[in-house]
Model the fold of this input.
Amino acid sequence: MNRHLLLRATLLFIVIAAAAPILTNAQVKPARDPKQPVDEEYSKKIREYTTETFFNSPLTDYLPASPNVPTPKAVLGDVAGAPGKLPYAAEVYSYMRMLEKASPRVKVYSIGTTEEGREMIAVAVASESLLGKLDENRTRLAKLADPRTINMNDDEADRLVAASFPIYYITGTIHSTETGSPTALMELAYRLAVDESPYVRTIRDNMVTLITPVVEVDGRDRMVDVYNWHLANPKSNWPPLVYWGKYVAHDNNRDAIGLSLKLTRNVLNTYTGWKAQVIHDLHESVPYLYDNTIGDGPY
Ligand SMILES: [Zn+2]
Done:
């Protein structure tokens, strides 16, 4: 199984699961909008590259077409997760900025730089209406985050909750050797921006999905170097990454304790600055998605 394709399927499921209470309230069931055309060529490639049909899902076995918004193919030359293509962080960002340019439902924010000076970004995807109310929403969420500001008043808290929309923050590739999430997140951003099915629209109209597609940017670019070397030298053993970033190997995901790395501080500032309700960090183990490091150790 191509792990990138599995990530694609699992990711959309997870975002939708997070929106489950909203969806249940609205009684919206997953189903493609029959009025929206499908990108047949892209969908055919998804089927071709997915080695077992049960790895796919009715939410991901087609790609909705858009007359004006480019798919990840515009940057990758093939579908997200295609064999033989691992994009550098700059290519991932370039795609996210193409989305932003083409769709009023996408905004890209620069959230700082890495130890080696590479940019980190966060991509917000939601309805145009929600994206127009981010500042006022943030003001409400900040009051809920520190209820002393409303004198611990439950009625006021209920009012703020009713007026607010949640922020679901997804981060990818904190471990640069776990390579699938950036491309899966490119496609997730496209689907959330473009799909007109009531199911996806309900997510888009009721919450902001915030995406940092690459956390360990320095390590990601090294990993792509190694992968490209492997493609050019298929008969040789490829060199492993000694460090998965500039200073650390695997343990950058423990750095939330010490905040010694810029990537940790940039993600934390985004999480607290946006007053996100969820931070969801994507990992992998062998071909499987290992999608959360919080709450049920050992780590
Ligand atoms: Zn990991």
User: Anything to note?
Assistant: The chain has one domain: 3-126+165-290. Residues 293-299 have pLDDT under 50 and may be disordered.
